[in-house]
Write a structure and sequence with these properties.
With 240 residues, the chain is an alpha/beta fold. Helix content is 36%, strand content 16%. It has eight helices and seven strands; from the N terminus they run E-E-H-E-H-E-H-E-H-H-H-E-H-E-H.
Length: 240
């Protein structure tokens, strides 16, 4: 199965991999100013946007991503669950990854044993087996990940579609990205400065790989939604 890819702009190619609930078009809406200098290739992961539904699985998706979009040198950016996909894909095709940016990936196994992280990982795992109304699951998801979004009684179908993909997804605590294999790739780890597990995970990635480290506060887990602050950090890294 091929994933749908939105393409905007002109310049060096930057592949954008979204997280849960929102598809590529919605997740990266605040990055459109970058299209003046970069070609943005925003993936719709399975079950989001224009890509047919399939089980969310960071490892399986990384194979598809590597085969479809890492067949030539590109910059790679992964947000949240998409950060797991991006890390696994980069290991598969490191020669074609000009740089890798990960934004708050829930790679809790990297800091397993910390009580705060372990409790948080268990809450996320619980969402993948939730059986209540999708509106209830969405509200719980937003609270767990730290996304400051008010959900009204009338939930947009896009949000419900994305929330449905959470059910049965492969839990992120099963991800153990090969950080040693990423050491040769220029890497940036970005967090939002709002929740301890994300900070610990990004710190662990930076320590193990020599990655640059950045914090973009102001939007909780919705780091790309900070717009200009995140865009500036990302573009500075890409040009460097």
């Amino acid at each position: 199965m091929c994933v749908y890819v939105h393409q905007w702009g002109e310049g060096p190619e930057v592949v954008l991999v979204h997280g849960a609930v929102l598809g590529g078009r919605e997740c990266w809406r605040a990055q459109r100013p970058l299209t003046q200098r970069w070609t943005l290739l925003a993936v719709d992961r399975p079950g989001h946007g224009r890509t047919p539904a399939a089980r969310q699985d960071f490892e399986t998706e990384s194979v598809q991503l590597a085969d479809q979009l890492l067949d030539r040198p590109v910059h790679l950016v992964g947000y949240s669950y998409g950060g797991l996909v991006a890390m696994y894909a980069a290991v598969r095709r490191p020669e074609n990854v000009r740089s890798l940016t990960v934004v708050e990936p829930p790679a809790t196994a990297l800091v397993k044993g910390n009580p705060v992280v372990d409790e948080w990982a268990a809450r996320i795992r619980g969402l993948t087996s939730a059986d209540g109304p999708l509106e209830t699951v969405l509200r719980e998801f937003l609270d767990v990940v730290g996304a400051p979004v008010d959900v009204t009684d009338l939930v947009h179908p896009t949000l419900l579609q994305g929330t449905g993909q959470l059910i049965g997804a492969r839990p992120p605590d099963e991800a153990v990205p090969d950080l040693a294999a990423l050491r040769g790739i220029p890497l940036l780890a970005v967090s939002g400065g709002h929740k301890e597990p994300y900070e610990l995970i990004c710190d662990a990635i930076a320590e193990a790989t020599g990655a640059q480290r950045a914090v973009c506060p102001g939007a909780g887990h919705l780091v790309p939604d900070t717009g200009e602050p995140f865009n500036r950090v990302l573009e500075d890294f890409l040009t460097r």
